[in-house]
Amino acid sequence: MNIVMESDLSQSIVEVKDVSFSRGDRSIYKNMSFSVPKGKITAIMGPSGIGKTTMLRLIGGQLKPDSGDILFEGGSIPNMSRKELYEARTKMSMLFQSGALFTDMSVFDNIAFPIREHTELSEDLIRLVVLMKLQAVGLRGAKDLMPSELSGGMARRAALARAIALDPELIMYDEPFAGQDPISMGVLVKLIKSLNEVLGLSSLIVTHDVNEVMSIADHVIIIADQGVIGCGTPDEMRNHESPLVQQFLKGLSDGPVPFHFPAQTYADELLGEKA
Amino acid sequence: MLDLFQKLGHKTLGRFAALGRSTYMLFGALVNVPNFKKGTPLLIRQLYMVGSQSLLIIMVSGLFIGMVLALQGYTVLVGYGAEDSLGPLVALSLLRELGPVVTALLFAGRAGSALTAEIGLMKATEQLSSLEMMAIDPLKRIIAPRFWAGFISMPLLAVIFSAVAIIGAHLVGVDWLGVDTGSFWSIMQSQVSFQQDILNGIIKSFVFAIVVTWIALYKGYDCVPTSEGISKATTETVVHSSLAVLGFDFILTAVMFTS
Amino acid sequence: MNSRKLEILVGFFVALGILAFAMLALKVANSGISGSGETYTLNAKFENIGSLKARAPVKVGGVVIGRVESIYVHPQEFLPVVNMTIDAQYLCRFSDTSSISILTSGILGEQYLGIHPVISPNSAEQRCLGQVVTENKQDEAIDDLFGVDSKALGDGDSITDTKSAIVLEELIGQFLFNQGSE
């Protein structure tokens, strides 16, 4: 078991070691550790409000952990200088929940944007690259539309095309399936899977859509209670002994994570007695 | 009582923190090697948004303020038989005070609030975050061109405002109320000094440009990214920058025009 | 909005700004006579300058030819000295026999300087400008008449024939004194 772990670590693109993070007085993570293997699809799951998006921002270096270390390709993100951090960020990209397309430019210009900023390619070459990326997400016909003219699913696909514009080594998806109809959800699932295979990049998906992500993930990490409560392949997770993991995967309304927000007893409150 | 002091101290510290954050933002945006090839189109776009689009409101208000000044000034001056001094009265009040100040106030309402709302929405829709994740500094890409556009536009707008207002005053004073056109211009010329009045007015308007644009950008950049947060930030931009303009105007006037 | 249209509109805005600035500089302010290199300075010592102020106009027959630059008290004689800048086209045109007085425009108006010019002879003007003097019978005749070579006023020269401002109190005092002595 130990030997397997070692080889896993050597091939991981992101390693989170003993990270603690708090916002104000509220502790979000306590001594959390996990690693994201290279070239695989990794899913981070957990109930809403436990700071999954925060995790992505920590990996992207937009937030700094209170303690612990985050390694990206062996380099420590929290200890990087600004220049090194910006260099590291050119190798990763992030798909935001809202897509975060620039509303003042067309779809084509949105996807050309990172290429224009970071390379000195000629406009002809940029056109070719952009068309290739748009073809990959099936939006070549929408290249002249403005972001406001796209549906939610299309906007997310366009944002995906922008995220892969510079051929990153790691893509982080922040809730890619939230608020999508079944068809666009299916399209996105297929896209994430095929991009991972074709481009050989590593994917990190943060989500709470269990069924979709279990179908494509190679590695699943479940977060709750300020730490990792279980990790492994989807099959391992389905047979996990932790009741919390089972509750989350099966979507039971009550269990270790209580249905009720902490409060005084129902009867007391109804009768108006002060706690 | 202790509670009150605690609150007061907390608020003061908060003000200092805001000043620190806004200074940090401005420095982050401005201290860098300019890249003219990539920067110029961005600047031109912002000059259009901030400058050209404010042109109409500035010119219309300038015209009316000039006409009102002439009308009011005339009724007072004619009592002393000094209606020939209408020219310098209008020109001096415009160049020294009204031009820079009214332009700055209109600019805060027209362009400042738009800047705050735009950047606040960019923050709310994660566009700023996504720039950061693309390894592009939003301070340099978003804040810097907008700041420079404001810095360049405001003095130009103030100069246009004053010129249009003087034309408006001429329209009312000379063409309607019958002040002699020769004395209107010549007494104005003999009383208005290029360095003392025109240049000082332009310096004022550069200062106002920094103040208003800075506040507008900071409020947008620092806002709570929700709809209430953005609406609050937009209001604060207009209120704070208007007050700041009036305060700075007093200081500048005291320094420039009293000796 | 394509970028060409954008550039045109911004260009229009900037051009309008420059135009407005030019109008303010040329039409509203008196940028002609002040600061720029085309002036020369003259001094004049007065008994009393009344309420003459810096930037007051210097006129010849009502035409503004310069401005008062500064006023200070002579360190030894304790008399006010007025320093004025005059348009360069009048350089060496006035003779040193010209007189200058402090006048008031209207009854309540501002005070200004009036020069009563004596035109300097050709030869004096040429001497003042540092040119070779061409002999001229008429000039020599004038010089002979006064017994000295007449001089033209160049940069930094002083007008000696000055008439001070009329101060109302002194005028009244004088009038009463004269009345009393009669």
UniProtKB/TrEMBL annotation, chain B:
InterPro entries linked: ABC_MlaE_roteobac (IPR003453), MlaE_Permease (IPR053408), Permease_MalE (IPR030802)
MF GO annotations: phospholipid transporter activity
Transmembrane intervals: 12-33, 54-81, 143-167, 198-217, 238-257
Domain of life: Bacteria
Gene Ontology CC terms, in alphabetical order: ATP-binding cassette (ABC) transporter complex
Subunit relationships: The complex is composed of two ATP-binding proteins (MlaF), two transmembrane proteins (MlaE), two cytoplasmic solute-binding proteins (MlaB) and six periplasmic solute-binding proteins (MlaD).
Protein name per the record: Intermembrane phospholipid transport system permease protein MlaE
The species this protein was found in: Pseudoalteromonas fuliginea
TrEMBL record, chain C:
InterPro entries associated with the record: ABC_MlaD, Mce/MlaD, MlaD_Phospholipid_Transporter
Pfam family, one: MlaD
Domain Mce/MlaD: 39-117
Protein name, as recorded: Organic solvent ABC transporter
Annotated organism of origin: Pseudoalteromonas fuliginea
